[in-house]
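Methods: example folding runs. The two proteins below were folded one after another, and each record is reproduced exactly as written to the output file, sequence line first and C-alpha cell line second.
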Amino acid sequence: MKKQLCALLVLLLCLAAVSGPAAPAAGMDSVPAYPFPAGSDRSGEDGRSSRPALSIDAHPADVATSPDSTATFWVSVYGSAAGLTYQWQVRYGGTGNWYNLDTTGSLSNFLSVPAGGNFGNQYRCVLTRSDGQSVTSEYATLKQNFYFLSNLWDIYAADGETVRFSVTVTGYRPTYRWEERDVSSSSWRAAAQGDQSWLTVRASPSTFGREYRCVVQDGFGAVITSYPASLYAKQTPAPKPAAKPAQTTAAPAPAAGSPAAVSSFSFRAIPESGDQIILFWNAVPYASSYRITVSENADSDPDAPSEATGNTYIRMPLSGTAGTRYYRLLTGGGQSREIAGTSVTRPGASGGSGMDVAAGAGEWITFIAPSVKDAVSWQWQERTSPEAQWNNVSQSGSASCTFVVGEAQLGCQYRCVIRLKNGKTAESDVITLRRK
C-alpha cells in the first residue's frame, strides 16, 4: 500500500512540473513565476524589443545668418539617448536627393556648417538605436539674413533731369519690384521697371511729388518693402550774408542774391534709430570744405561745430524728444560764409497743443515725428488755423517733413498721424509755425 501511495505522489509531482505553477488564489496579485534578471530586455513572441518607440523631441530648426557666420543645427529624442548614432544629411539647394555628410561625427546630435556658399541647403538627421529602430528628423533650411543695407531717400531735381532711386539689400537671390503712387492717390501701382535694384525717373511736372518704393522678395519667399521716397522740384533757398567774412585773397564769395548757392539743402530722419538726422546739400560753389553750427534758437550764438570736410551730408544726433534746434551750413575754401540756415523740430507724442516754431520766409524747415514703438507709416497734416480742417501734405510716408517756408505757411499748424502695427494711430503734438 505504501508503495502505491508513493507512486501516486510521484505521478502528481510530475504532472505539476509539466503544467506550470498553479493560478493564484482569488484576491491575490499575479506575479511571474520566473522574473527577468534586472536590466534585461523583455521580448515578445516575435523576438522584437518592447522598449518605447524611438521618437524625436526637438527637430532641427531653420537658421538665418550672415555669410561669414557658422550655422548650427541640433536634434534630440525623448528619454535616454544611450546607444544612439546620428547621421546628418544634406539636400543641396533644397531640391534633389539627400546625401550623407561624412564631415560630421556619427555620434553627435549637433551639426555646424559654414554659412557662406551653403544658403538654400536643407539639413536633416537620421537617428538609429542599438535595437535597430531608426527615425528621420524633419529638415531645416539655412537662410541668409534679409534686410536693407541702404534705403530710399527723397530726391530734388530740375525739370528734365533724370534721377535714380536705388536700394541695397543683403539676402538670398533677391528679386525687385518697383511701385509708384501720385500725390492724390493712396494706392500703389507697378512702375515701369524690370527686376533690378534701381529705378530711373525723368523729372517733370507730372512726376514731381510722386512717391516711389521698392518691394524685394528673397529666394525663401520673405518680402521686405523700402521706405517711400518722393521726387521734388529743386528749390534754391536765398543765401544769407556772412556775419564775419574772413580776410582772404581767395576767390570772392558769390554776391548776395546770386542764384544756386545751394541746389538742395534739407534734413532727413532715420526712422530705424529714431535719434539721428541727416543734413545733406548739393552744388555749393567756391567751397572745398563745410562746417555745421548748431544753436538752440535763431538768435543765439552757434555751438557744437561739426566738421564735414569733403562730404555733402552729415549725421547728427537729436537730443530730447521735443524742441527746436537751428543748424547752419558754412563753407570753407578760403572764406567763412553762411550759405543757408534751417531748423529741425521734433514734437512730442501726446497729441496736445504742442509748440511754436519761429521761421522766416525762404528758410528750410524740417519736422521729425516722435519716436513711437511699432510705427509703420507716417502721415503729415497741415491746417491754416486752429479752427480749420486738417489736410494731408504731399510729404507723407516718411518720419520727416521738409519744405521751404513761404508766406502761405506762416501761421499754419502741423502734426503727424502715425499708424502702428496693430492698426491703431497716434498723433504728435501740434506745431504752430510763427513768423520770426
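Second run, written to the same file directly after the first:
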Amino acid sequence: MTPDAGILTTLLRSFGDAFVNGLGFIHGDAKWLLGILMVIDLVLAVVLNLSDGDHMKTLIAKILKYGFFIWLVMDYRNLTNVVLNTFQAVGLKAGGGAISASLLTDPSEIATYGIWVTEPIFQFIDNLGAIDVLKNLHKIMFTGFTGLIIILCFFIIGIQIFITYLEFYLVATLALILLPFGVNRRTAFLGEKAIGAVLSFGIKLMVLAFIAAVAIPLVKTWSIPVDPTNEQIFCLLLGSMALTFLSWHAPTMAAGLLSGHPTLTAGTAAGTVVAGGWAAATLGGAAIKAGHGATMAAVSGGSQVAGAYKEGGMGGVARLGRSYLSEGSQKITDPFVSSFDSGRKVASMSGDSGGTTGGGSTAQGAGSGDSFSHMDYAAIRKRLRYVPNSVPPSETRKGGSARPDLEGGDKS
C-alpha cells in the first residue's frame, strides 16, 4: 500500500475491523470464564452461608448479579457500539452539530485542513522569481517555516483524534475478557476497572468531538491573501497552536470532568507554548545550521573542481580526485602505522636493557637479550630461611614455609 493523504483513516478503519474480529475471537473464552467463575462463586456462597437462615435472599442477589454479567458478555459488541456512538453524538451536538460523525471519524481529512490553510503561503513562495528570492530570502525562510509549523499543528489534531478512537477500540476489545471477574467479590475490581476504562475513553472521545465540532467550522472561515503579511501569518499560527493545545489536553480535560477538578490553567498553557516554541526554535536553528554547512561545503568543493579543470582540464580534475583519495587513505592507515612504530620501539628498548644490565655481552647471559638474565637466583635463594619450628620440605614432601631475610645475612 502506497501511503497517501488518507493514511490515518485507513489505519483507523483497519483497527476498527480488528476490533470487530477480536471480539469474535475471544467471545467464547469470555463465556467459558464467566461460567467457571459463576460456579465457583455460587459454591462459595452456599458453603460460607450455611448458618444463614434466609438463603432465598442470597439466591436472588446472586441471580441478579449473574444475569447482569451474562447480559454484558453476551451483548458486549452492541453495548460498546452504543457507548461509542452515544458519547460521540453528545459531543458533536454540544458543539453545535456543524460537522457530521463521518468527518470526525476521518482524521486524515482533519489533518489536511492544515495543507488547505497554508496553501496561499506556499503559493506566494512558488511565485517568486530568481531575483525576488534573493531580495526576500529572510521572508521566504520565515513564511515557509511558519507554514510547516501550522501544518504540524493540524497533523497533531488529526493524530490525537486517531489515537482516541484507537484507544477506545483497544480497551473495548481487551476489556471483554476481564468482565467475567466481576461476578466474584474478591476479583470484582478487574471487571469494574474494565467497565470504567471503556466509559472513561468514551468521555475522552466526547470532549474531543466537542472541540472538533467547534473548531472545524472556524478553520473553514480562515483565509489569508496570496501575499500574506507577517501579522496575518502570526495570527494564523496563533489560532492553529490554540486548537492544537485544546486537542492535546483533551485527555486531561476528560480526567478533570470525572474527578471534578480544573485541569486547564494559564500555567499549563504557558508551559505548552514555551515547550512548542523551544522545539520550533531548536529545529529551525538546526535546519539553518545544516543548510549553511552544506551550502559552504558545496561552494568550496565546486570552486576547487572548477579551478582544477581550468588549470589542467579533466586531467586536473583527476589529479584533484587522487589527492583527496590519498589523503583519505592516509587518515585511515596513520593509526595502524603509529601503533606499529610504538611496538617496535618498545621491543628495541627491552632488547637493549637485557644486553647492558649484566655488564656487556660477556656478563651474565653473554648478551642473550633476555631482560631477566641479570638476576642472581642463588643469592635470592640464600636470603630465604625457614621459620622456626617449621617442617622442612625434604621430610614431608609437602613444602615448607619461608620468609625473606631482609638483613642480607647468610643464615644457612
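Comment on the second run: The mean pLDDT is 73.
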